[in-house]
Each structure stands twice: as C-alpha cells, then as structure tokens.
Amino acid sequence: MAERADWAELRARRMAEPGAAAAYEAARRAFELGKAVREMREQRGWTQDQLASAADMTQPAIARFEAGGTVPTLPVLERLAQALEAELVVRLSPRSAA
C-alpha cells in the first residue's frame, strides 16, 4: 500500500507544477482522438496503411496519432475525417459551473 501513497504523492506534486494540468489535458484529448480514429478504422476493417493511403499520410503518422503521441492540427483531422467518411465536429462549449 505504501507504493500507492508514494505514487499519489508524486502525482500530486507533478500536477501542482505550472502547466502540468494543461499538458495532461492535452495528452488526454490526443489519446481520445487517436482512440476514436483507431476504432473507426477497425470498424472498416482497414489497416493503418490503408487509412494512411486514404488520408494522404504515412503509416507511422497514423500509428503515432492512434497512440495519442501527437496533438493533431485541424487539417490533419479534416483529412482523417474525409478518409473515414466521417463528419468532423469542432466546438467550444462553456464549462459547467462546479
């Protein structure tokens, strides 16, 4: 149990550092976008190579994207959406009061 307390303490210290919360949130969004693209690709029965070809990208770029290793630009998201015959929806919503 001491390991969990140590991990929780380390995480709390890291998250208290300037910019840590924003970086964590950006990484979470990148992971979620990658997961959504991977799921759509797999539903089509496509390989990463096939998606890369349809989106005019490289297979390693698709692999990095699906793993959440990159924060995509809007043009990249548009190419992926078009290749997957999906609608890209980008919106800003007010945060709910906590």
Automatic annotation (TrEMBL):
Alphabetic keyword roster: DNA-binding
Molecular functions per Gene Ontology: DNA binding; DNA-binding transcription factor activity
InterPro entries: Cro/C1-type_HTH (IPR001387), Lambda_DNA-bd_dom_sf (IPR010982), TransReg_Diox_bact_type (IPR050807)
Keyword DNA-binding part of the UniProt annotation: yes
Pfam family, one: HTH_31
Gene Ontology CC, one term: cytosol
UniProt protein name: Helix-turn-helix domain-containing protein
Biological source species: Goodfellowiella coeruleoviolacea
Phylogenetic lineage: Bacteria, Bacillati, Actinomycetota, Actinomycetes, Pseudonocardiales
